[in-house]
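Homework help board

Subject: predicted structure for assignment chain

Our instructor gave us this sequence and asked us to write out the predicted structure in token form, then describe one feature. I got the tokens but I'm not sure how to describe them. Can anyone check?
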Amino acid sequence: MARPWRVAIVGGGITGLAAAVRLRDRAPAGTEITVYEQSGRLGGKLLTGELAGGPVEFGAESFLMRGPNGAESAAVSLVRRVGLAERIVHPTVGQAALLVDGGLRPVPGGTLVGVPGDLAKVAAVAEPAADADTDDGRPLLGPDDDTSVGRLVRARLGDQVVERLVDPMLGGVYAGRADDLSLVTTMPALARAARSEHTLVGAVRAAQAAAPRATGAPVFGTLDGGLSTLVEAAARTSGAAVRRDAAVRELHRTPAGWRLTVGPTREPEHVEVDAVLLAVPARPAARLLAGPAPEVADTVGGLDYASVALITMALPEPELPGLSGFLVPATEGLLIKASTFFTTKWGHLRRPDGLALVRASVGRYGDETSLQLTDDDLLATVHRELSKALGAALPTPVAGHVQRWGGALPQYTPGHLARVAAVRATLRTAHPTLALAGAGYDGVGIPVCVRSGETAAEEIITALGGSAA
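My token output:
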């Protein structure tokens, strides 16, 4: 009788856990799945904590309900698979604002990540360049081309649209700059439309028209009880053996599969497996690839990351606007780049004691000196800047928390997806039982990471000989 498969998943974030669930569902019965997590906890950037006696997210706060095709997102499918569908809740306030010239203005409608499809709708926030978005008789983007978002939008609609709309919206997701971020990776729908449309406004409208419509359906969701409940449920459902505080330091090819070196240098443990799924950020993945696949290690390790800090405060009965939060363009000269009014946005978090939870994010790629401040200084600065933005002094916090995420957000420069495709093609040919998954390759957001882990799991199943289904 054939021995059961042995699969190692390196990385216990939501990508690795989603891969473990998919392996459990699709691999032959008896498959041995082990998740190796370097830190002492699972979940990666999903971390539910407590502040002033109530739950709050110290990492990612929500997930998209729908995927690009209009069907439920991979995150929702995973939530359903692990038995948590009844816990999904949605924002009770959806309107956000932009801080422009020191005042809050509603985020204009009709844009695609800040790029307008109707110039009149953004006039209150930014003045588009006059007559720049002309039809030159050819598509904006060639069949295989990529460019930075900022380069395209500046050329077509001018600096203000980039700096007051696109940059803060991309910065809120990636902590990066529009001038550096790949259009194909961060805005794929617009990139597809730009391959046929001759104007940027026309490309935005075409992308919006092509998007599946779900009228009245909520865009975002989270879990009552916190996103850490998804982490726990996924780990439990997968039936995987979970090894915390287990750093995988080396990876070597063997005649039958792979050998992992786990643990401290002085007392290494060697583990033999049939397949390996790397669900860790690009740089640690590159270190592990340097031995068996040096031809791709440098490309993988070339991906850079931004570091951020999330500062959360519990404020006694503050006067907050009826907004979910606001974004801050870099041109405003503030440390904060975004703020979320948690207990306004999420009705299930509202508290009878009148405490409001407010969170702000700090840290932009290439300008991370702010993260060198102490926790106390960050809390004081954020409190002062929020008061200034809201036009009234906020009450003194009764509690505060600073969560630092070093190297948290990948920075996708133009050509990123082509580079990743080349790396994966090389691995499929030379090392088919070694797969890469995660935000560093496929994009940010819980649904993307879940789908990335599941896809990598399917690739391993195929390489090992097919599923049980």
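Reply (TA_rk): Your tokens look well-formed. For the description, you could write something like this. The two ends are 19 Å apart (CA to CA). That's the kind of observation they're looking for.
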